[in-house]
Amino acid sequence: QLKETAYLDKLSVAGQMAAAIAHEVRNPLTTVRGLIQFLGKDTKDEKLKEFSPLLLDELDRTNKIITDYLTMVRPADSELECLNINEVLRDVKSLIAPFGSMHDVEINLEDVGHFPLMADPQQLKQCLINLIKNGIEAIEGEGIIHIYKYASDKNVFTFIIEDNGKGMTDEELEQIGLPFYTTKSKGTGLGTMITYRLIQEMGGKLKYESQPDIGTRVLITLPVAIQE
Ligand code: ADP
Ligand code: MG
């Protein structure tokens, strides 16, 4: 179960400054990246040839951290639309399936029914991709991500993203969603936090259930659009 996130309130002044800095740092980063790419291309210098891909990787990682951070601190200007959850999930599946195949993970999406939701399509998709990506990354070897409906009534719709990956201990579960908490060498530790925040802004909820070596289940609850 995710804890209430009081730290979000503290972001006001310090957070805004950090966001401004993060934003400014991105421009020189882009220049440096372009130059390294240019220098590393067709070079005869062995060292440059060997290390430029590494430099580019690290710069991309830096850029990703900044992008994730900015997504988190910026007031999300959501454009709410009436969406059909079944279609959203199908879109998301086709976006993430190649990443799944790369990791020998199959995405098994059940028909969840045609429920109308009020949400920002881009933001909702970003959230679901973050969650499914985490599931895929938690699986060593072959595995399955199972997406299915859990419950619904006239106000809310709940569905589950389940993986049979490595799962989390209670201590790990307590830390998920905290900024920069990651157990991955190339992780940013911001994905879940952003997802949590965006879902909350849509009036929804996230809940985790996990067991080490068995897998993780994420319950996503979203408000159903009121039909005239
Ligand atoms: P990142 O993916 O960059 O590490 P996240 O905020 O998305 O950052 O996730 C934080 C951490 O939570 C991950 O590093 C991982 O340890 C844990 N985690 C998230 N989702 C899962 C999952 N489905 N199964 C196991 N661990 C998970
Ligand atoms: Mg992640």
Which ions and ligands are bound to the chains? adenosine-5'-diphosphate, magnesium ion
* Radius of gyration computed on alpha carbons: 19 Å
Reported for the largest beta sheet, the result is:
5 strands, mixed
* Average pLDDT taken over every residue: 88
Strand-and-helix sequence, N→C?
HHEHEEHEEHHEE
Work out the strand percent. 15-25%
Topology:
Blueprint: H1 12-40, H2 46-73, E1 81-84, H3 85-102, E2 105-109, E3 116-119, H4 121-138, E4 143-152, E5 156-163, H5 170-175, H6 191-201, E6 205-211, E7 215-223
Parallel strand pairs: 2-4
Antiparallel strand pairs: 1-3, 4-5, 5-7, 6-7
Bound molecules: adenosine-5'-diphosphate (ADP) and magnesium ion.
Residues 130, 134-135, 138, 163, 165-168, 176, 181-184, 187-193, 216 line the site of adenosine-5'-diphosphate.
Give an overview of the whole structure:
One of its GO terms (cellular component) is plasma membrane. Residues 20-226 form the Histidine kinase domain. The chain starts with 11 loop residues before the first helix and ends in a 5-residue tail after the last strand. Residues 1-11 have low confidence and may be disordered. The chain has helices spanning 12-40, 46-73, 85-102, 121-138, 170-175, 191-201, and strands at residues 81-84, 105-109, 116-119, 143-152, 156-163, 205-211, 215-223. The longest helix has 29 residues, at 12-40. The strands form 2 sheets. It has a 5-stranded mixed β-sheet with strand order 2-4-5-7-6, with helices on one face. It is built from 6 helices and 7 strands, in the order H-H-E-H-E-E-H-E-E-H-H-E-E. The radius of gyration is 19 Å and the shape is globular. Bound molecules: adenosine-5'-diphosphate (ADP) and magnesium ion.
